[in-house]
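Hi R.,

Quick one: here's the Carboxyltransferase domain-containing protein sequence you asked about.
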Amino acid sequence: MKVRIETAAMDALMVRLFDTIDETNMAWVIAANQALRNAFGNILIDLVPSYTTLLLHYDCQQLTHSEAIQLIHKALSGLTPVDTQAGELHDIPVWYDESVGPELPLVAKRAGLSVDGLIEQHCNHDYCVFALGFAPGYGFMGLVDEAIATPRLKTPRRKVAAGSVGIADRQTAIYPLLSPGGWNILGRTNVPLFEHAKRGEPLFRPGDKVRFRAISREEFEADGGDTTPMEERP
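And here's the predicted structure, written out as tokens:
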């Protein structure tokens, strides 16, 4: 890990820890997140961890640009990684079916697998939540096995159903609400990712792990899942 600090705005700094995406980064990113929150205290406005960086937004009326940089270096001096087992493991049931996951056969064919083989491959790894973004509760997860990694769609859909589970390159994610999107959709889950009225926060946090579990249509329907087929095709 090599700390580099870049100016993002007059009151924001980008703290860059790594150059490449790797699951082992998260132990350091989460440790840095905790250290910076402790160091900045009420001077901190927001702190957003991601794959290789943290975006730090601070109150520039309380701290100058140079003071903020010095405080970051001091907070991260002698940093040690956290226990990556501390994050929560989420079990996410998914109904994998072409009607709600139109790219399921295409991704399988591209990987040289049967549809069942692709489903098994997607379910056999605990994915790390690297970052939250795009939409409330949307967790960018990885890393997907290179064998099933698939580029984004050339033409994004205007509508992707809430709960849609997809792959883009070596990332996987769940759409928390109806929105545009260009990922390869494999199936659908009924697990709510963001319910502000109930929890006030997203289900996932950076550093958490997610395990997908294949279920039948009957199980999906019994849990209140929406079986409406994906209408729009790329």
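The chain has a mean pLDDT of 92.

Cheers,
M.
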